[in-house]
Automatic annotation (TrEMBL):
It holds the Pfam family AHSA1. Gene3D superfamilies: 3.30.530.20. Belongs to the AHA1 family. InterPro entries: ASHA1/2-like_C, START-like_dom_sf. This is Uncharacterized protein YndB with AHSA1/START domain. Residues 18-157 form the Activator of Hsp90 ATPase homologue 1/2-like C-terminal domain. It comes from Kribbella jejuensis.
Amino acid sequence: MKAEFDPELDLVVERIIRAPRAKVWKAWSDPGQFAQWWVPAPAVCRVVRLELRPGGAMVTELSEDGTTFAPQLDASFLVVEELDRLVFTNAVDSRWRPADPEPLLMTAEVRLADHPEGTDYRVVVRHASRSARALHEEMGFADGWGTVAKQLAALVEGVQS
C-alpha cells in the first residue's frame, strides 16, 4: 500500500542526491554509514539495531557530548523494498510492542528514485493528527530532517560537510 501525501497531516523533505541509489541505499542499510548521518551534527548517533526487513528493528541512541548516549528512536520497519522504499514507524517498537513514544508518534516513508543527476530522495513523515504534525514542525522538522538529508548527501557524494 502506498499512502497519498496529506498536507494537513504529513511533512516532507525532498532532495536530489548526486549519487546512485545503490550508494544511498547502502547508507541506509549499513549501520556504520547510517550512524554518520542520521542525527544532526555535532550530535552523535549510535546504532543499536538496524534490520532492514519488514518487521526489523531500528533502534538508535544519541549523544550531545559524544560520550553519554540516550535512547533516540525505537521503531520497526513496515516495508522494505530494496533500492526503492522504506517505511518505518515508532508506533510499534523494536520488540513489536505497541508504543507511545515521546514527543510524538510518526510513520516515515523514504522513497528513492532515479534522477538524471543521481537519486531523487523523498521522505514523507506521517502523523495521526494536525496537532502532532504542527508539534513536529514546531520542533524543527525541516531543519532536523533537512540537515540529516544534507549529511546523507554529503556522505554518499563524498563531500565533507
